[in-house]
Amino acid sequence: MAETSAPVKPARFEISRPVFERTFKINSEQAIRVIRKSYDRLIKSLYAIDVILRIVGQEQAIDEIEAIVSSMIADCAEQLQQEKARLEKLKADNGITETPTYTHPTEFVARIASPQIAQFVELIRLLDQLMIVMDTLWLCQVIDNKHCVEARYHWQQRLQRLANRIVTIERQAHRAAYAQGFGEEVRGAREASGLPSEPEVIVENDVHEDANIVVGDH
Fold first, then answer.
1. Which helix (H) or strand (E) segment is 156 a member of?
2. For residues 84 and 131, what is the distance between their CA atoms, to the nearest angstrom?
3. For 101, 134, 206, 211, which has the most beta carbons within 10 A of its beta carbon?
């Protein structure tokens, strides 16, 4: 009896997508920690939301998710800008013109594969600028150590919580696509784009909001 061979799966080819590479100097420890702890995971989720789920989901649903993510990033940017403006005024009112140097700045190479990745990169740069003004005021004894430590932690966590919420949105949309029978298409599209076949798991306990966004019928 002749042996039957297993069917050969067609080769998958990686998707060629447009990418900008931009290099920035990041000074503050808080912005460096956001890059180290959240950036890689976040850009995978943003890319999945922006491109991969569009392949299998309804366009209207994906557009709604993207709009929500963009709004979340914009809200955070506005808060950072308002605080930076407040501290800049405090610096000017005290006649401070110096800016500190940092002992261990880092070179941040950002791969911009979607507009929302570009938005979050600018958020990191804005956090860095805010921390520089805050550190200046601390070194010049305008704000005390306790206030500075608390504020640094608050703004670092603000960006990390935002990143976690975006990752959560990706997981919800991913599960919804599987529930609708698009599992193989999702897995194939993710792998062809160099992404993990499944979204990463959030292990931190600081995600307090759940967006409950899914790829539904429209």
1. helix 145-179
2. 9
3. 134
How crowded is residue 66: how many other Cβ atoms within 10 Å of its Cβ?
19
* Residue given tokens 């002992």 in the structure block: 103
Cα gap 171→48, rounded to integer Å = 10
Taking the C-alpha atoms of residue 6 and residue 173, their distance in angstroms, rounded to an integer, is 33
Token duo for residue 147: 């206030």
pLDDT in tens, 141-199: 999 999 999 999 999 999 999 999 999 988 887 888 788 787 888 888 788 777 887 88
Q: Facing residues of 109 across strands?
A: 23
Tokens encoding 85? 């403006």
DSSP 26-40: E--HHHHHHIIIIIH
Please report, for residues 62, 107, 171, 206, the alpha-carbon distance to residue 52 in angstroms, rounded to integers and kept in the order given: 10, 29, 12, 27
The whole-angstrom separation of Cα 115 and Cα 121 is 10
Terminus-to-terminus CA distance in the chain, angstroms?
52
Per DSSP, the three-state class of 51 is helix
Domain boundaries, the chain: 32-192
Place of tokens 């194939």: 188
